[in-house]
Structures are given as structure tokens and as C-alpha cells.
Specification:
244 residues; 62% helix; transmembrane
């Protein structure tokens, strides 16, 4: 009902308990409806943290591989020495290590979704701890790599819309391989290409990055109102044709 109130289109499928909402800008994916009971500053802080976590989950592994594989001179001296010593006993390249660990994490994530009740989260937490500890002891992964993967996993699932996590989980492999081959240059090109694609993307006449691109500061002021739900719809939901 809230999406209808704000001007979205809601599609109901027979036999499904879920509804499809269009158009939905990317910022809506980081919104939890219970946030409207909180203070405005709290809502914006939590949403910003979720958005930051989403991009960390998507870009973090690639940046990690780029820095430690191709562009090691970027790191400070002591950090570079500590990183090299932690990987001294690892038999294969860091790209292979990170890829295998990411695959394992995604397998456990899907197992968590498939198992109902409290068993799924318990298996995910315990499995992550056991696999990470066993990988380090067997010299299959470095301590720094396990820390990165733990951070990536937490950052992935902080998003309130689970379907949105698939975007980060899929795209991180693309950034991982381009960074492993071309280093920071490849990672930067990938980020620029992604941002260019998102800026130009439109859904039913609405910009996917609205109200960030094109930037409309008045949309943030209306979106912060909790008492006037009608005005929140609004400015960035209007297409260029409607405004003209």
C-alpha cells in the first residue's frame, strides 16, 4: 500500500505471496519500512551504511586482489611486509584463493536460505567459522583473506532486500577477475563503467539513480517527512515528460 501511495506500480501474481513493484530506484532497495518510526538522522545514517556496505561487498574483493597482486607498491611498507608474511605459506595466487573462498561463502549463503527456521543461520555462522579456521590452518587461505571474506559476507547481507544481494554477489566476480588481470587500472575502469551504466539506466521513464542522478536535493527533503506520505512520492517519481 505504501508503494501505491507513492506512485509506484504494484503487480500481484496469482498464487504468490509476494508483489512486484515498478519502477524502483536503487535507493529504495536500502529502505526498511520500519525506519519511518526512527528519527530522520538515524534513517539516513542506516541507509547510507547499507549503501556503503553494498558497494564494499561488490568492489572490496576486487580491490583487495588488485592491490596485493599487481599494485603492491600502493601499500605502506609495514603493511606490505605483514601481508606478504601471512601469505608466505599459501601455494597458489591470491586471485585463486579469493575466488575459492567467495564460492564457498556463496554456497553457505544459499544453504542458509534453503534451510528453514533457526537451523539455516546457525549452519551459516558455524560453517563460516569452521571453514575459515580450517582454511587458515591448512594453509589454504591467509588470515587477511579470511577477514576480508567475513567483512564481505556481512556487508552483503546487511541489505534489507535479499534479492538485491544477488547483484553484489554476481558483480563481485567480474571485478575480481578484471582486478586480478589489470590491477588498479582494471578495477577503476570497471567502477567507471558501472557508474556510467547506472547513471544512464531508466525504468519506465524514471532514472535508476534518482534522486542522485540527476541530483535533486528537494527530493531528499520530501523523502524525510514521515507524516506527509503523499509528498514523499513524488518528485523523483515524476518522469521528464510529466514534469514538462
Amino acid at each position: 500500500a505504501d508503494f501505491l501511495f507513492r506512485g509506484h506500480i504494484v503487480i500481484l501474481a496469482d498464487g504468490s505471496p509476494f508483489a512486484l513493484v515498478v519502477p524502483v530506484p536503487i535507493l529504495e532497495m536500502f529502505v526498511d519500512e520500519e525506519e519511518y518510526l526512527q528519527a530522520t538522522s538515524t534513517r539516513y545514517f542506516v541507509r547510507g551504511l547499507r549503501a556503503l556496505s553494498f558497494f564494499i561487498a561488490m568492489l572490496g574483493p576486487g580491490l583487495y586482489v588488485a592491490v596485493l597482486t599487481v599494485d603492491t607498491t600502493i601499500l605502506p611498507g609495514l603493511l606490505a611486509i605483514a601481508t606478504a608474511s601471512s601469505r608466505a605459506s599459501i601455494a597458489y595466487p591470491i586471485l585463486t584463493e579469493t575466488f575459492l573462498m567467495l564460492i564457498i561463502v556463496d554456497i553457505m549463503a544459499e544453504a542458509t536460505v534453503s534451510m528453514k527456521g533457526i537451523l539455516g543461520p546457525a549452519i551459516s555462522i558455524v560453517g563460516s567459522l569452521i571453514v575459515g579456521e580450517a582454511a587458515v590452518r591448512a594453509n589454504l587461505a591467509s588470515n587477511l583473506g579470511v577477514i576480508l571474506l567475513a567483512l564481505t559476507t556481512l556487508a552483503t547481507f546487511i541489505t534489507p532486500r535479499y534479492q538485491m544481494t544477488y547483484a553484489a554477489r554476481i558483480w563481485k566476480y567480474g571485478f575480481l577477475f578484471i582486478s586480478g588481470i589489470f590491477g588498479i587500472v582494471g578495477w577503476t575502469i570497471g567502477v567507471l563503467w558501472l557508474m556510467t551504466d547506472l547513471v544512464g539506466k531508466r525504468e519506465l521513464g524514471m532514472h535508476y539513480l534518482a534522486p542522485l542522478a540527476p541530483f535533486r536535493p528537494e527530493a531528499f527533503s520530501t523523502a524525510s517527512a514521515t507524516t506527509d506520505r503523499k509528498t514523499r512520492s513524488a518528485d523523483y517519481m515524476k518522469t521528464g515528460r510529466a514534469r514538462s
